[in-house]
Amino acid sequence: MPTQDMTLQDQELGQRLTALTIGMDQLERRLSRGHGVLDSEGLVPIYLGQDLVPAPTYQDWEEVHSELAALDQATRHIAPSPRRAFLEDMLRSLRTAARLFEGEELSFKEKLEQLVGVPAEPVSEDVIQDLQGRIDTLLHDAGYRSGTLAERVHRWEADGAIASADLSTTFRALMNEAQRRTDALIYPTGDYTMALNEVRGVPFTARCNFNAGQMDLNVDLNFTRSALKHLVCHEVFPGHSTQLLYTRAAAERGESTPDVLLCTANAVTGCVQEGIGDQGVHLIDWVEDTNDAIHMTLRRLRSASATSAAWYQMGAGWSEDRVRAFLRDTSYGQPVWIDGRIRFASYSFRGPFIASYWHGDEAVRTVRERIHPDQRAAFIDTLYGQMHSPRSLMMFQA
């Protein structure tokens, strides 16, 4: 939906949806006091729109459900479109979040389908085997021809691992180039930058700590240059930090509906947010060599494997030892990464969002690969300038 096609109805619904979501965030934080299903993170971890759409003060969840019902009714009057699809998916997601915040117990299947907005199933074994086959071919072309596929992956990662003393310098060089490309191809990011913040003992690989101006990096893991490049693109340019800068400016100028301010919400929007991050290297045309191709394919394999493993762990009731063996034999991930995926999947609210990486990446990738060059500008405007669920994004038409 280009800016000129926005209606007053779109703006009003966007305003109300944003207020509702931020109001839910504040109510959950106030009632849980940092000990609810989201701990201290809240429903919207990073919100830059306090002066544009302030949070209403809800007294209880009954008020939230009343506004959800009213927005449901308003959405029914919108013609079938990507906008309507997104609003339907987002309202279902928020209804599910409210139920969880109230203490209702939901199955992992219900959380995947209703909160995250993705299928409650593992990734197809055919897809996983196809990715393994591609990695096998790429490693062979790179000279890694002896040993099992797992052994060759481990050897390739060990050979290319960045020394700990060089991490910060490599990070800055990659970030500078990523920003240059992002400014040229996505959005002018101005003087915004991030510092590298090395952390240990955490369940994530990297994290965008936007308000502190830091990219947190789990240095219990080893990183190749291609892996660190991907993380810079995911967390900073053109990923999460860029999306935050873009959406704040677009909402302030009235070029986007106010709900773009919800880009970090722990809701159905999370899929496309993670998809932008995981497609970041491609969005700024930065696959340089075979090593990059190996890592990007390996990343997709690990995302697919983690999605399947989370389902086996939380949906099918596999033991942690069985899940760990599956991840080891399928993804060839480092033990610290495997342990982190198992911890992530077990979290009551955030756990199902492990699937948002695979499904969000697939949605953004599918649309990116099918557009013509003359549709790119419209695609970028749609991707960054609107909120989407995977379903609404897949409806993109330039």
UniProtKB/TrEMBL annotation:
* Name of the protein this chain belongs to: DUF885 domain-containing protein
Q: From what organism does this protein derive?
A: Deinococcus seoulensis
Tell me the lineage of the source organism: Bacteria, Thermotogati, Deinococcota, Deinococci, Deinococcales
